[in-house]
Amino acid sequence: WGTISLGQGQEPKATKMLADGASKGFWVLLANCHLCVHWLPSLEKVIEKTFEDKPHEQFRVFLSSSPTPKFPIQLLQNCIKMTTEPPRGLKANLLRMINSVTEEHYNRVKQ
Length: 111
Known about the structure:
By secondary structure, this protein is α/β, with parallel strands linked by helices.
């Protein structure tokens, strides 16, 4: 198990940890990805290449991040997502959902 908190120039160490984990079969946690959004497209390519090269069967990669709109969509789509936010309650969630739907979405069904 290896972990590294991203930010402040930790990208080379993270890349090395991924390579070591892939070859030796340990789990890698890259924490605070939101602090390093400029590097995430490169991380996506590193992870893609790592899995193309057939890593150790025990190798796993975990990413943690606070919400950010700059997180690469493709990286998100290729991941299993888990949230640790506590539920705000049914009423708050319904209000948020109703307020986020536009008139266009309501009227998009043609009869």
